[in-house]
Specification:
By secondary structure, the chain is α/β, with parallel strands linked by helices. Helix content is 48%, strand content 21%. A five-stranded parallel β-sheet has the order 2-1-3-4-5, sandwiched between helices.
Length: 120
């Protein structure tokens, strides 16, 4: 069981992903609605893994990844994107994200990404 932080500006997407992660046996230790909140919540909770939306207000997911990885180079972050954001996914991987999952979320793909990133 991993301690996971869910970051997405849409509350219903956070809820859907949190429910999915809980059924996979993971512990949701924090959530955030934008990149700035994500950085603060990461520092406060030190999760094993973060799911990070790309497009958010105030600070996008790519900038948040850069910031989190600058303070914790071992941070494990999986980007979440809608279809058609392939260029942003490349930017996210270059910023330090370990994998990406595409919305709408499919449980088996989410599980595969988490297991891969955590080395399970």
């Amino acid at each position: 069981m991993a301690k996971i932080m869910v970051v997405d500006d849409a509350a219903f997407m956070r809820m859907m992903l949190k429910d999915m992660l809980a059924t996979l046996g993971h512990d949701i230790v924090a959530e955030a609605g934008n990149g700035l909140e994500a950085i603060k919540a990461y520092e406060a909770n030190k999760p094993d893994l973060v799911t990070m939306d790309i497009t958010m207000p105030e600070m996008d997911g790519i900038e948040a990844v850069r910031s989190i990885r600058s303070t914790d180079p071992s941070a494990k972050i999986i980007m979440c994107s809608a279809m058609g954001q392939q260029a942003m996914i490349v930017d996210a991987i270059q910023a330090g994200a370990k994998d990406f999952i595409v919305k709408p979320f499919q449980k088996d793909r989410v599980e595969l990404a988490i297991n891969k990133v955590l080395g399970v």
